[in-house]
Amino acid sequence: MNKEFIEALDELEKSKGISKDVIFDALETALVSSFRKNFQTEQNVVVDINRETGDIKLYSQKTVVDEVEDDVNEISLKDAKKISSKYKVGDTVNFEEAPKEYGRIAAQTAKQVVIQKIKDAERERIHDEFIVRQGEIITGQIQRISNKNIFIDMGKVEGIIPPSEQIPNEVYKMGDRLKLVISEIRKTSKGPQIVLSRAKAILVRRLFELEVPEISEGLIDIYSIAREAGSRSKIAVYAKDDSIDPLGACVGQKGQRVNSIVEELNGEKIDIIIYNENPEIFIKNALSPADVVSCEINEEEKSAIAIVPNSQISLAIGKQGQNVRLAARLTTWKIDIHPEDPSTFTGPTSEPYYDADNQEILNDSLIDLFRNDEE
C-alpha cells in the first residue's frame, strides 16, 4: 500500500461519495480474513492501516494467562513480563507479523474491497435516486420478457413489471413503449430492483395530470380513484373555482382528453364522478351511470342504502357487482342497493342484492334477469 493508493481513495471519495474510513475499515477486516485463509491459521490477528501513508501492519495477538493452554493465542505472564513489566493477566500482547507473500495478498484484497465498495455505493445511489420517485410516471420500452416478468430499459438500471402489476389480458411485446408508475424500490442482493406498475390506481391519476392542464395546475383536484385494472375505473374530481367545470375539463372537447387515457389503458372504461362533501350526493354520483332515487345514510356505521328504480337495479350493481364495488371504494362508504318498489320488482326480493361488507353479489339471478340493462 502506498501514497498512490491513498490518492486514489481521495479521488474515489470525491467522485463516488465513498468515505475513505469505510474502505479502510472494510479493508482491515478483509485482510484479517485473507491472512487466516491463506496461511491456514487460527491465530487472533489484527490489521492496522496508516490513514496517511497507507502502510499496513499485521499483528498476531496473545492473551496473558497464568498457565498456557493454547500456544497459538496465549502467552504466560512470565514471558509477557520479559517483553514489558506493565503486562498483567488478561492483557493482550501484539506481535508484528511479516509473512512472505502478504504484500501480494494485501494488494489483491484491496482491489476486491474497493471494487465491492464502488458497487455498493452505486447501488445505494440508485436506491436513493428512485426511492424519492415512487409514484412518478415514466415511459419505458420493453427490453425482454421472462417467466411472465416484463423488463423495462431505464438506462443504468432495469425496471421490472411483475405479473401482479400488469393489466390483465393486456398483450405485451418486445419493443412496446408503455406508460408506467414507479411502484416500489426493493433492496436485493444484486442491488435495488425498480418495480413498475400498469395496474395501480395512481397510474390513472398520473395520466389525468398529464392530459388535463387544470389538474396539473391545481385548479381541479382528484379526490379519489377506484380501479379494477383492465376493466374499469372511477375517478372523483372537483374544482376549487366554481367557474370551472371539472367534468368538462377532464373529458375534453369531443372526449379527446379522456379518450387519450382510455387508449393508453387499452380500452379500460373510465367513469368521471363529481365529488361532493355531502355523502348522499357523492354516493349518488358514484353509482353512475345508474340513477339513484334517494340515499339513506348511516353516519355512525358509514353505510348507505341506495334506492334505485327497479329497471336499473342491475345497472347500479354492475356486472359481477363491479359498479357498486367501485363506488364503495371511491366513496369509502358501504353501499347496499334496494329497488324503489319492491312490491312490483320481478327479481329476487329477499335479502339484499349486494353484500356491502364483502363486496359481492348475493343473487346472480338478478344480473341474468336484467342483463340487457347493463352497460
TrEMBL record:
CDD domains hit by this protein: KH-II_NusA_rpt1, KH-II_NusA_rpt2, S1_NusA
Q: Which residues form a coiled coil?
A: none
The record places domain S1 motif at 135-199
Family matches, as InterPro entries: KH_dom, KH_dom-like_a/b, KH_NusA_2nd, KH_sf_prok-type, NA-bd_OB-fold, NusA_N_sf, S1_domain, TF_NusA
Gene Ontology MF terms: DNA-binding transcription factor activity; RNA binding
Q: Name one GO biological process term.
A: transcription antitermination
Major place of localization? cytoplasm
What are the protein's UniProt keywords?
A: Cytoplasm, RNA-binding, Transcription, Transcription antitermination, Transcription regulation, Transcription termination
Q: Where in the cell is it found?
A: Cytoplasm
Is Methyltransferase there in the keyword field? Answer: no
Q: Where does the signal sequence lie? A: none
Q: Which GO terms describe its cellular component?
A: cytosol
The organism's superkingdom is given as Bacteria
SUPFAM superfamilies per UniProt: Nucleic acid-binding proteins (SSF50249), Prokaryotic type KH domain (KH-domain type II) (SSF54814), Transcription factor NusA, N-terminal domain (SSF69705)
Q: How does it assemble?
A: Monomer. Binds directly to the core enzyme of the DNA-dependent RNA polymerase and to nascent RNA.
Q: What does this protein do?
A: Participates in both transcription termination and antitermination.
Q: Report the family membership.
A: Belongs to the NusA family.
Annotated NCBIfam families: NusA
In Swiss-Prot or TrEMBL terms, this protein is called: Transcription termination/antitermination protein NusA
Q: Which organism is it from?
A: Fenollaria massiliensis
Gene from which this protein is expressed: nusA
